[in-house]
Amino acid sequence: MMKKANDDLLFLDKDNQLKEVKELKWLPWIGKEYFKTKPRLLIVGESHYLTGKEKNLLETEQPDFTRNVVQTFCINNKKPQPTFDNLARCMFGNQKMTVDERAEKWKHLAFYNFVQRPMENNKKRPTKSNLQKGWNVFSELIRILKPTHCIFIGFAAADCNNPYKLQPGEKVGRYAARLFEVELEENNTCRCVAIKHTSQYFSWGKWRKLLKTQYFLF
What we know:
Blueprint: H1 15-18, E1 29-30, E2 41-45, H2 54-59, H3 65-76, H4 82-92, H5 99-106, E3 109-113, H6 128-145, E4 149-153, E5 167-172, E6 175-183, E7 189-195, H7 204-213
Parallel strand pairs: 2-3, 2-4, 4-7
Antiparallel strand pairs: 1-3, 5-6, 6-7
């Protein structure tokens, strides 16, 4: 069962502004200490998936769905979930933490999914139109969240309709990271990296080393 996000872990002051973002279906997770954290890290997932059950379909209609996903799988972590388990290993060097330890980590992070419509199952892939709309949302979202760094889970967004110039990144096995920068207001720059999707066949230790080398983990 999906757990409701704990408001005590969240920064909610931007919600009214976020609700004005066209095509943003789900409010991003914004940790309580995110705007006090330097550097500020935004993690960008790919998409939410349905299991075909009506209950899950109804849940995805809720604007807090992404936040509830983070609470359920990243913080409470009652069931194995490879995408988030491997992300935790890569980000923190350890997936086996207490609920309080995970909550403390996520108080300093922001997260949302790039594609703002649910996939019918995990075999479905976002369309070019989905990804184009994703870039439209991203360009507005980062001006509200003002991240200094972004980590994209998977290459789908970086490789399709990307309005920013890609730079060659280091390889981990057969996969090369995608790097690009986004100019924000007030001459601030956000550094972005896309890594292999963490759902399967993910060498988290090697990707962690790359992210630390490129100054995406602190």
